Amino acid sequence: MPSKTRRRATLVLAVLVALVATLFAAGSARAETDVDKIGQALRSRPVYVDPRASDALSTQQARTLADRIRAADVPVYVAVLPDDRAYGGERIFLRLREATDRPGVYAVALGSSFGAASDASVLPGSTSQALAEQNLRRHPGDLPKVLDGFVADVAAAIHGRSADGDQGAPDSTGSSMGAALVLLIILVVLAGSALFAMGRTRKRRRERERAELEQVRGAVQEDITAYGEKLSGLAFNPSDPSSTPEMVDDYGRALDAYEKAKTKSDTARRPEDVRAVTEALEDGHFSLAVLGARREGTPLPERRPPCFFDPRHGPSVRDVTWAPAGGAERSVPACAADATRVEQGLDPDARTVPVGGERRPYWEAGPAYGPWAGGYFGGYGAALLPALLVGTLLGGSLSPGYDEAGAFGDAGDYGGFGDGGDYGGGFGDGDFGGGFGGGFGDGG
């Protein structure tokens, strides 16, 4: 039996024993935009404050809040960040969860916005978001009080869930002990059968995931190569006197995105892992667009979804009306070149990907490309990608629970507090959900 299955079996048996037991008794100066580093910090201390957001929560207040979280014995992770678009807006919750790699409740103050998201195994995402909104109403304009109240409410909610079912247990007698023993035996047998079936299901799923990952890996490498070629063709020298500090920062973010994409591609083990690759590339393409505008002296581009027809083209500039073969018309974001083609009645420069020995437009490539597309478009709202892909083969494969991560209904498994588990899912799919509830002040 694989080690993970043994751990899961141990966990299931521990839960069963706990159920039977209830019958016997009542029971830095620069904004930190590297989310991976924030995740590392949260693993050792549950409260992270970006130096540029220290006016919202002081060092002493952060220490006091961390002590309260530890005393409450709840997996709450708090990040207080400046209003920096590099954090990805609403996407920061899922990015922090991935970087920290621990099930829990994630509370984020981003500029003047505050909200929360959580793993369903810890607390329903809708509950964590509601508690965030509740404390915003109670303590308007006072982030320290909002966070204190939020932690207290989360602790009460989590410990209240743990206590459910511990009331009304009968006194321990010979009869009840015998009944409990019989119940335990039955539950163990049922658990064994369930674990066996779970193991077979998981084996089939992993075989399918390996096949899908191999199918999409070629497209991922093409994307990384195209991005690398765009970087090498910049002819940008950070030490040139004409290079401003802002240009150097843009260039640094573009390089970081390239390295992150390569690293995430090398470590990808499941189709869902591909999302982190294309998410990094989407960030990189936007940084390059900003850098280009600075160098040309033109207005900085608006943060928009990438070109629908080929995300390698970079951020879109406007929406155009388009319809797939045999499908209904819809409005899609497009780069300037593709927008012009479509408006002139020509075919756009579509991104084709390898499928079964041939190449097809990615929207006709099937479910393996869901996470790939999710990384590019997921940060712009959970409803965007399904709306763009309606009536296509890829759109038809998206489950009703499709979320920003591009995940499908059975995409992940969660462990207990702090065990990391297998991470999957995202906002709205029942595994990890929540978001910003509102603002706590004007400056944040």
UniProtKB/TrEMBL annotation:
The keyword Membrane applies. The keyword Membrane applies. The chain crosses the membrane at residues 177-198. It comes from Streptomyces coffeae. Keywords: Membrane, Signal, Transmembrane, Transmembrane helix. It comes from the Bacteria. The lineage of its organism: Bacteria, Bacillati, Actinomycetota, Actinomycetes, Kitasatosporales. This is TPM domain-containing protein. Residues 1-31 form the signal peptide.
